[in-house]
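batch_manifest entry 22 of 60
target: histidine kinase
source organism: Dyella koreensis
requested by: lab member K.T.
priority: normal
notes from requester: please return tokens only, no post-processing; we will run our own comparison against the previous entry in this batch. if the run fails, retry once and flag.
--- input ---
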Amino acid sequence: MNARPNAWRSATSRLILIYGLLFAAWGLVLVGVIQWESARYLNTVVDQMLEQRMHYLVATDAQRLPATVDAASTIDPHGIMSVGLFDASGHAIAGNVARIPAELAVDGKVRLLTRGMPRPDRDATRVRARALATHLPDGRVLVIAKDTSTLDGLGTIVWRALLWALSLTIIPGLLGGFLLRRGPERRIRELQKATEPIRQGDLSKRLPVNGRGDELDVLAGIVNTMLGEIERLMNEVKGVCDNIAHDLRTPLTRLRARLYRAQQQLSGQPEAALVEASIVDIDAVLGRFRALLRVSELEDSHRNACFAEVDLGQVLQQVHEFYAPVAEDRGQPFALEVEPMTAVRGDAHLLFEALANLVGNAIKFTPNGGQVRLRARMDSRGPRVDILDSGPGIPSNERDAVTRRFYRGDNSRTTPGSGLGLSIVSAIVRLHGYALDIGDAPGGARITLYCYPVAPGEVPGTCLSRSVTAQVV
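--- output ---
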């Protein structure tokens, strides 16, 4: 429950990730459009330059054309512009083009040469080029080309700018997101810490509000309003139950006293048995009322202010001595096994009441001749008490319900009782912050009392999530 939340699953991290992905996608689209528009524009400019130069050379005198082509090649030392004149059979006459490229159609239209322009001065090094070739009136072929290194360089610059933009945006964004995430994470941890006593039953606690009015404050305010209403309703229900139990106890006690006097006066008469049965029923009702008031008393968390160090072994010895005669009358071997343990913090009388209740149930539901064991030892986190018996056990689907008030399972409906015994035990366990686990043992039932504070995420009282290995009886 109090585990640290996954930082990468927080809302802030997700927003930053979504923003980063959207920014990267939009950046790619934007750069792609810029590069496409720039390339289209520059290609148009290059095509116009090629067409203008072709027009100029075609208009040149046929006798002077080879010299003009050579001159055009000479004034281009960097090899950006390629010019070549070929005879009708494709042999080079003038210029710096070795041969007519196979992918260039001689139709007077500008073409993109992906394999580049073959030139003798480039040592087989080729760059992409845009070129056009046309037939002259005398049958010769004139080729003009311009490499696209400028265009490619522009694309490289644009993509590098995108990478720099992404780096300079995403990295600070991640750092800023990390800093922004720390505030909500701290608030979440505070809310988790505040919910722990609420989860353990203290409805008077409220979630902290820092006054900023943000989403977490709004959520905390809604939860606090709900907690206030739940606390009010629970107090009303609890007050009604306690008032009924308290108010009816006095007239029932008076009624019992009158019936007792009537029983004494009817001694030896047939009506005396009927009066005695009525007294037994009234005693059962009074016992239930006392148990209800006892549970309410134990649910008052302020009682733990008087806790002290308790020798658990001594309490277990007292429980064993108290129930040993009862087990002996039922022919049940009642063994006590206590290993050296550390002292626990709690109320010795309440712990005796809880353990006595558990042992009493084990003896009551174990058939005559069965066996009951009371064992205590150190667990990996503290003292642990196991009550094991050879009775029918508690079905797994009822183990969470048996600690509720007045709940009686199928195995106990025919057995005398009020259904409040385990409710009292659960209230004592919750008051101490301990945990109670109900499970199986070979040939019977096992109830384990963990006499140390529960870990974060575990619920005091009945804790069915613990992994407990059944011990051999």
